[in-house]
Each structure stands twice: as C-alpha cells, then as structure tokens.
Amino acid sequence: LFSTGRGFVSLQGPLITMNKGGGSGGGISGSGGEKGPTAAAAAASLQKQKSLLQRVEADITSVVDNFTQIVNVAKVSDPPVKNSQEAYMMEMRASRMVQAADSLLKLVSELKQTAIFSGFASLNDHVEQRIAEFDQEAEKTNRLLARIGDDASASLKELESHYYSSAQRLTLDI
Predict the structure, then answer these.
(1) Distance between CA 62 and CA 68 in Å, rounded?
(2) What is the tens place of the pLDDT at every residue in 157-170?
(3) Within a 10 A sphere around the Cβ of 93, how many other Cβ atoms?
(4) Which candidate, 67, 52, 62, places its Cα nearest to that of 18?
(5) What is the 8-class DSSP label of residue 79?
(6) Which of 26, 50, 45 has the alpha carbon at shortest distance from 34?
(7) Environment class of 100 (CB within 10 Å of its CB; exposed 0-12, middle 13-18, buried 19+)
(8) DSSP 8-state symbol, 7
(9) How many CB atoms sit inside 10 A of residue 161's CB?
(10) What are the residues whose beta carbons fall under 8 Å from the beta carbon of 118, sequence distance 6 or more?
(11) pLDDT for 47-100, tens place per residue?
(12) Which of 59, 57, 54, 71 is nearest to 96 (CA)?
C-alpha cells in the first residue's frame, strides 16, 4: 500500500487501485518473490510505478483543489466586475480540472496497455518455462524407459538361458 493524502493506493502487479477507506499503510509493496526479471528491470519497474503514483497523486490533487476553488468562488457578489472576475476564475479552474481528468484518462489507458503487454510477456515466459520443464521430464522419462527396456532384455536373456539349459526343457521336448 502507498499512502496518498486522500486514501491508499495498492500496487498489484501492473495494476494500481485506490482505496479511499481508512486503515494503516505505508511503503510500497509489490508481488515479491517473482522470478525472471533482473534486478535492474525490477528497479526500473518500481521506478515507473512510483512515477505513475506521483502522476495520479498530482492529478487527483489538482482536480480536488480546483473543484474546491470553484465552490469557494461560486458565491454571488454584488459588484458586477467582481462577478465577471469570479466567472473567469471558475472557467479557468474548470479548464484545469478537465486537463487533470484528461491526464488521468491517459494514465488509465497507459496502465491498461502496460497490463495487457506485461500480461503477454509474463504469459510467454511462463509458457517457455513450462515447455522447458516438460522437455526435461520427457528426457527423464525416455531415459527411464530405455533403462527398463535394457533391464527387461537382460532378464529375458537370463530366463531364456535358464530355460534352454534346464532339465525340464529336455523332458518336454521328448
């Protein structure tokens, strides 16, 4: 969990979710213990997550602050000049809110693309790992079958030699 000023953000793989509820949290936690990426790639991924969290925090702060300013300026004043100034202020704040919301939408789109592409990459890595494991199992099974075949052949030769040299064979042939 990563604590923001307005809630908690949870990092789960490539996905980021935000929880406005209470609770304790601090620091950043990922899905540790994964194999595959090097330390440099993991550090780059962590840095990207921090960067995305900072963007989310900045954009949400901008939306909330601008909305607060719009509400504060929305009261009607008597002088017409002041009303036009306040209307301009409200228009400017609304424009900033739209920009921040657009930035958040772009961030969501980027996160979706990252989730899709990292999902494919991790899926491919997993498939390649499983193929390697199955190849090793196939080699082990082939060696075991070859050994069993050799043992069966040796046992059959031994049984044949005992049979052909036994006295019972001679009595059955007569």
Answers:
(1) 10
(2) 999 988 888 877 66
(3) 20
(4) 52
(5) S
(6) 45
(7) buried
(8) S
(9) 10
(10) 13, 14
(11) 888 888 898 899 899 889 988 888 888 776 667 667 778 888 889 999 999 999
(12) 59
Residue in the block written with tokens 């050799």: 150
Q: Domain residues of the chain, as ranges?
A: 52-119
Tokens of 92: 């400017």
Total Cβ atoms within 10 A of residue 171: 8
The residue type at 172: L
Task: Pick the closest to residue 136 from 124, 144, 126 (CA basis).
Answer: 144
Angle between helices 39-73 and 80-165 (to 10 degrees): 150
As a whole number of angstroms, the distance between CA 73 and CA 70 comes to 5
